[in-house]
Amino acid sequence: MTTLAQSETQLVDRLDEIGAKIQDVREATANVIFGQDRVIDLALITLLSGGHALLIGVPGLAKTSLVETLGGVLGLDNKRIQFTPDLMPSDIVGSEVLEEETGGRRNFRFIKGPIFTQLLMADEINRASPKTQSALLQAMQEHHVTVAGVRHDVPHPFHVLATQNPLEQEGTYPLPEAQLDRFLLQIDVSYPDADAERRMLFATTGVEERELKTILSADELMMAQRLVRQLPVGDQVVDAILQLVRSARPGAGNDQELDDMIAWGPGPRASQALMLAVRAKAMMDGRLAPSVDDVIDLAEPVLKHRMALTFAARAEGVEMSDMMARLIEPLR
Questions:
Q1: Chain-centre distance of CA 104, in angstroms?
Q2: Which of 13, 112, 214, 273 is the most buried (most CB within 10 A)?
Q3: CA–CA gap between residue 243 and residue 258 (Å, rounded)
Q4: Where are the domains of the chain?
């Protein structure tokens, strides 16, 4: 057997092993988070891609429970920060304190903040000031923080699942476009259906306590992230990604009517995010390579927070979902 064939066989074997565990993770999470299979899948795609996600939904839809559950089944240390207008960057990153040692010597000691964890929930991130938001978003991009000129690396893996309430905008600081671009996916969390809510009532109001078992360790998650990057991507899928992302930019020239409705569009980071996301979805579904259908399925969560409609388009009642449907149509 040639070296190439051996490496391909090893890749398939590792994909099968990791894929089976990911299926167990999905099932275990779905047994706690009812009626949110799509949200669970997108959150897992985010983690397998090595990225961060922005979850948008009204209160009470189990966003906090989702982060805690994923932390448990994936064996990740997880913490939660409740963002408020008076939250300071040092409350997230940490700060230096002056300590006096024996003999009268004084030294500064760095006390780590809650950002030093593997899975961080940034609850209602848009309630904090831009300065505080930036402290978190810098760590998301660079995987380290700098305090008093000293670099402190965050743990590996490091993922942020931030939440926003779409209803109450009073007293909030919307994330700037450049910061929104740091999130791999925007995940819309909607209400569960009637059957799921019925099961939820019985499962969460009884005396039985659910125990979470660790299915995938942090090291195995990082190995899965490396495997995601090794999955082959066909030229047809690459062309679909490029066609989709480039057509979402104003001035692309393909459709003048679309150009007039798009204020600004996604940059190259969107193409990278979509490339990783379709690979992660293929792995999660037990496939060896992504398809154009994966590009269509993940186009909206990857792109919609990276583009905006013009005032004229919004005045005419055009929704972002309508825009995404038009962009996707040529790929079908």
A1: 48
A2: 273
A3: 14
A4: 13-230, 233-332
